[in-house]
């Protein structure tokens, strides 16, 4: 019989030995507004301080003066093709380098989680790339990976945008074809398909059953196609307005899903708020119609974070000029080169919304799409301590510091460092 140690047999509240952090002199984006409050976390999770005072009877181990910064959740980008000279679809030989560079580079833009996005490609490429885009927690190495967003190849040839036509498939023969094309779906978090293609309806149900979020896009489909797809499990629309039928008052197309009464639940939709892919008036129409569904995505490609000139996306060449990337020799937009912090600023300006609404479209809304409500994209107690310290003076917003799981992983150049004041815990 094991002997009982008297020192542990007495009931006492559990006291964690992990350090408790208290950020002071800050404002928080919480529950749809900005509140003046301290911000607490421990073990990489946001902490409710009250039970700590009253049950554990311990105080903060580390305090930090935030100098009136605004604290918000880290941004989540669910459509990102690459950046900083790297592309997830074009160069499997350099994929590990690509993941390292992009994940690290994103920290300066406030992104703490993202979905590396693979454009329409050959089965051989999917089989090479997708097994290596596995979920990974973020940290000092870079932003966390939520799994891949696979955009194509079951999309409309008429609405292909920058996707390579030779790899586009105009139907799904049977669900067995999905594994033949992609390989295992384990690392696929989100897939974009055109709902009007033969066999896609069964594919949507197959994806949804496996926990893959299904998005509709690069589509020539009408509203009925979209409604049928949502009733089969689709829940998102890929870059609304781009690569789909334009809104028509007698057939509003996929855009009509924003107000359809024939869908079991409201859909969410991605918006590239770079001031180019979506006209500010169209952005306002979408936002005013269905504000809670709006998800900011960058759809950024390899040239994001680089300068002007010619760059590679997939196997195509694109030319960057200003905030614009187009296929060389044509007017077709080839994905954007904006960063998420820019998208938030642009959305706030173009839609005339508050900074809080702008932030929610880059945090809470994408988290909901990915089934991560309460875990990421929020400062609620118990959520992951992925957060940003922002400067929000004079209507501009800039990222000062980026934290993942409570660890500072980025500080903007010329920003005074945060000082962490450590206190010895008193012995009881
Ligand atoms: Zn696209």
Structure report:
The chain has 428 residues and is of the alpha/beta class. The chain folds into two domains: 6-72 and 381-422, Urease, subunit C, domain 1 (Roll); 75-369, Alpha-Beta Barrel (TIM Barrel), CATH 3.20.20.140. The chain is 22% helix and 25% strand. It is built from eleven helices and 25 strands. Strands 8, 11, 12, 13, 14, 15, 16, 17 and 18 form a nine-stranded parallel sheet that branches. Strands 3-2-7-22-23-24 form a six-stranded mixed sheet, with no helix packed on it. It has a five-stranded mixed sheet with strand order 5-4-1-6-25, with no helix packed on it. A hairpin with a 2-residue loop joins strand 23 (398-404) and strand 24 (407-411). It starts with 5 loop residues before the first helix and ends in a 6-residue tail after the last strand. 50% of the residues are buried. The model is unreliable at 1-10 (pLDDT under 50).
Give the helices and strands, then pairings:
Blueprint: H1 6-9, E1 20-24, E2 27-30, E3 33-36, E4 39-42, E5 45-46, H2 49-56, E6 62-65, E7 70-73, E8 75-80, E9 82-83, E10 86-87, H3 95-106, E11 111-118, H4 123-129, E12 144-145, E13 148-151, H5 175-182, E14 188-193, H6 200-209, E15 213-216, H7 223-232, E16 236-237, E17 268-271, H8 280-289, E18 294-296, E19 309-313, E20 316-321, E21 324-327, H9 340-351, H10 355-360, H11 364-369, E22 387-391, E23 398-404, E24 407-411, E25 420-422
């Amino acid at each position: 019989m094991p002997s009982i140690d008297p020192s542990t047999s007495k009931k006492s509240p559990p006291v964690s030995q992990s350090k408790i952090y208290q950020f002071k002199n800050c404002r928080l984006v919480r529950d749809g507004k900005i509140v003046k409050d301290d911000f607490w976390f421990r073990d990489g999770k946001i902490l409710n301080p009250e039970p700590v005072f009253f049950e554990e009877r311990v105080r903060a181990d580390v305090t930090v003066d935030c100098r009136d910064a605004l604290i918000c959740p880290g941004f989540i980008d669910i459509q990102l093709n690459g950046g900083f000279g790297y592309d997830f679809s074009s160069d499997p030989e350099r994929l590990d380098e690509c993941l390292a560079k992009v994940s690290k580079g994103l920290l300066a833009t406030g992104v703490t989680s993202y979905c590396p996005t693979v454009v329409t490609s050959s089965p051989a490429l999917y089989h090479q790339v997708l097994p290596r885009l596995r979920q990974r927690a973020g940290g000092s190495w870079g932003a966390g990976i939520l799994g891949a967003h696979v955009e194509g190849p079951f999309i409309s040839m008429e609405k292909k945008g920058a996707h390579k036509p030779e790899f586009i498939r105009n139907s799904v023969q049977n669900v067995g074809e999905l594994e033949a094309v992609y390989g295992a779906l384990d690392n696929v978090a989100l897939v974009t398909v055109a709902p009007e293609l033969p066999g896609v309806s069964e594919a949507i149900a197959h994806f949804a059953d496996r926990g893959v979020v299904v998005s509709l896009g690069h589509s020539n489909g009408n509203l009925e196609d979209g409604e049928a797809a949502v009733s089969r499990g689709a829940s998102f629309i890929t870059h609304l307005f781009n690569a789909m039928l334009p809104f028509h008052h007698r057939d509003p197309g996929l855009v009509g899903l924003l107000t359809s009464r024939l869908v079991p639940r409201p859909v969410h939709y991605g918006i590239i708020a770079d001031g180019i892919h979506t006209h500010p008036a169209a952005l306002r129409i979408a936002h005013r119609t269905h504000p809670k569904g709006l998800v900011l995505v960058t759809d950024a490609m390899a040239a994001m974070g680089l300068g002007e000139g010619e760059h590679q996306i997939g196997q195509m060449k694109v030319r960057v000029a200003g905030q614009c990337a187009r296929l060389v020799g044509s007017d077709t937009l080839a994905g954007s080169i904006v960063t998420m912090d820019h998208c938030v600023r642009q959305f706030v300006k173009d839609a005339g919304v508050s900074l809080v609404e702008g932030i929610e479209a880059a945090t809470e809304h994408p988290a909901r799409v990915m089934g991560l409500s309460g875990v990421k994209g929020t400062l609620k107690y118990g959520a992951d301590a992925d957060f940003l310290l922002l400067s929000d003076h004079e209507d501009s917003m800039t990222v000062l510091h980026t934290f993942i799981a409570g660890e500072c992983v980025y500080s903007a150049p010329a920003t005074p460092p945060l000082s962490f004041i450590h206190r010895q815990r008193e012995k009881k």
